[in-house]
Amino acid sequence: MIHFNNPFYLLGLLLIVLIFFLLKKKREASLLYSDTDWLGIQPLSNFYTHLPQYLTLAILALIFISLARPQRGYEYQRVKREGIDIVLILDISGSMRAEDFKPKNRLTVAKKLAVDFIERREGDRIGLVVFAKDGLIQAPLTLDHRVIQELINKIDFGLLDDGTAIGMGISYGTLLLSQSTAKNKVMILLTDGRNNAGKIDPESASSMANEANIKIYTIGVGKRGKVPFPMQTVFGVTRHVMADFELNEDQLRRIADKTNGEYFRATSPKALEDIYGRIDKMEPTTFEVERIVKYKEKVHWTLIPALFLFIIFFLEPVISRRIP
Question: pTM for the full model?
Answer without folding.
Answer: 0.65
